[in-house]
Write a structure and sequence with these properties.
- The chain is an alpha+beta fold and 369 residues long.
- The chain is built from eight helices and 20 strands.
- Among the domains are: 143 residues, 2-Layer Sandwich (Gyrase A, domain 2), CATH 3.30.1360; 82 residues, Elongation Factor Tu (Ef-tu), domain 3 (Beta Barrel), CATH 2.40.30.
- The strands form four sheets. Strands 11-12-13-10-4-14 form a six-stranded mixed sheet. Strands 15-18-17-16-19-20 form a six-stranded antiparallel beta barrel. Strands 6-7-8-5-9 form a five-stranded antiparallel sheet, covered by helices on one side.
């Protein structure tokens, strides 16, 4: 994968983004669209209609063989061996000290075949860690990150748009499930997963077929009001949905328990796994807790702003924005465990003022069922 000193890589949809007038930025070693028409407009389209995302910068690592399930159980915090074929789980790969190397989604494609999707910024590190942790086992690791295009369609009209283009039975495809089939005549893996809080699908295809799928979905979605969506709205959507971002809420200095994601740690599975002892301790002794903050005064709590309770500094904002859906400033922050109860009033240092913010339960937004 590209490193920061290299020129940033282009996704297979770079010419589509240029034609759509996207504002491009460098992100995790890739040139990615930040926005097309505007973050607000793109955000609202996903909440009300549908949005199309180029996620070809993400990492896709395939692990196959008789010891694939057991090996991934050793390498990751979750229990991939418990997955039924065609299902997925949210997972993490941790350092021995319990810090988070990356958060992942693990898909079981067949009895002995798994796909792990990693964040773009950590794709190479995850691939390297898995290679080391799975060494000597009866399995093959195939990092297909640079050979795979990933397009996501998200929003209440997503199923109606992609349905006629695929032979996958979407009515039978549950949330956090995956199926092999075709989209726009192209062999594809279709997963009912996403990072927006809406219903939607992620479509994995060979890199050369990315543009075919993108064009077909844009054309099919035209009558439904589909719009292309950049990283800007992707961030506001995931924040409203209370979903963590690696580098903000997650990192080597945080454990899954501190992030409120202890559910991804399967202490009940057989055998040891990397970080187990440290995570057992972390479960009982969190140093901090990730909370939602509803800012009750003027100003937006941004990443890196300090959080106080009275005169005592209790923590730091990890992500913050003006919520396009709610119309109010929202944030996520790490605070002392004693300050993490919903209803607690804290203060965020915004410029030279202390602005009150109330601890609230996550997520900020839940789609209507």
């Amino acid at each position: 994968m590209a490193h920061s000193q290299d020129a940033p890589m282009a996704t297979p949809l770079a010419d589509r983004h240029a034609a759509l007038g996207a504002r491009m930025v460098e992100f995790a070693g890739w040139m990615m669209p930040l926005q097309y028409t505007g973050i607000l407009e793109e955000h609202r389209a996903v909440r009300s209609r549908a949005g199309l995302f180029d996620l070809s910068h993400m990492g896709e690592i395939f692990v196959e063989g008789p010891e694939a399930a057991d090996g991934l159980g050793l390498a990751l915090t979750s229990n991939p061996g418990a997955l039924k074929v065609g299902r997925a789980q949210y997972s993490m790969i941790c350092f021995p000290d319990g810090g988070i190397l990356d958060d992942l989604i693990v898909y079981r494609l067949a009895d002995q075949r798994f796909m792990i999707v990693a964040n773009a910024s950590n794709s190479a590190a995850v691939s390297d860690a898995l290679t080391a942790r799975l060494a000597g086992l009866k399995l093959v690791l195939d990092d297909r990150s640079l050979a795979t295009a990933l397009v996501a369609i998200q929003g209440p009209r997503a199923a109606a748009i992609i349905g006629p283009l695929t032979d996958v039975d979407l009515t039978a495809l549950r949330h956090y499930a995956i199926a092999e089939g075709t989209v726009a005549g192209v062999p594809a893996l279709v997963a009912r997963t996403g990072y927006t809080g809406e219903d939607g699908f992620e479509v994995f295809v060979e890199i050369g077929a990315g543009a075919v799928v993108w064009d077909a979905l844009m054309a099919a979605g035209k009558a439904e009001g589909i719009v292309p969506v950049g990283l800007g709205a992707r961030d506001t959507l995931r924040l409203e949905a209370g979903m963590p971002l690696y580098g903000n809420e997650l990192g080597p200095d945080s454990t899954p328990f501190e992030a409120g994601l202890g559910r991804v740690v399967a202490f009940t599975k057989e055998g040891d796994f990397v970080g187990r002892a440290a995570l057992a301790k972390a479960a009982d002794e969190p140093r901090k807790r990730l909370v939602g903050l509803a800012v009750r005064g003027r100003g937006i709590a941004r990443h890196g702003y300090e959080v106080f309770r009275g005169d005592r500094r209790t923590g730091i904002v990890t992500s913050g924005t003006l919520s396009p859906t709610l119309g109010d400033p929202i944030a996520m922050a790490y605070v002392a465990p004693s300050d993490a109860e919903p209803g607690t009033i804290l203060e965020v240092a915004i410029r030279d003022q202390r602005v009150p913010a109330e601890v609230v339960a996550l997520p900020f937004y839940k789609r209507p069922s």
